[in-house]
Amino acid sequence: MNEPLVMFFGAMLSLSFAICFAPQVYKIYKNKSSKNVSCAMCVLQIAGNVGGLGLAFSQESDFWFKLNYGFGLTMSIALTYFWWTYRINTRYA
Length: 93
Known about the structure:
Order of helices and strands: HHHH
Mean pLDDT: 84
Number of strands: 0
Largest sheet: none
């Protein structure tokens, strides 16, 4: 396998998933409202990342998959935390 390509695409995958929820987390925090965010989406993201992380650690998987699902789980939990914190403002936003 071509190691530089694996490193490039692995880093691109992990970085993209690591920051994909950052704009939504910032928007919820800035507006103090989680009006347009579904709780079910938050729960499914957490479940998917836990499943992916479990699969990555149960096999001889690549470092990038572990990093990807680890960052994804962290961002999903952050999104859920801010959704929960500002859910009361959904009626007034």
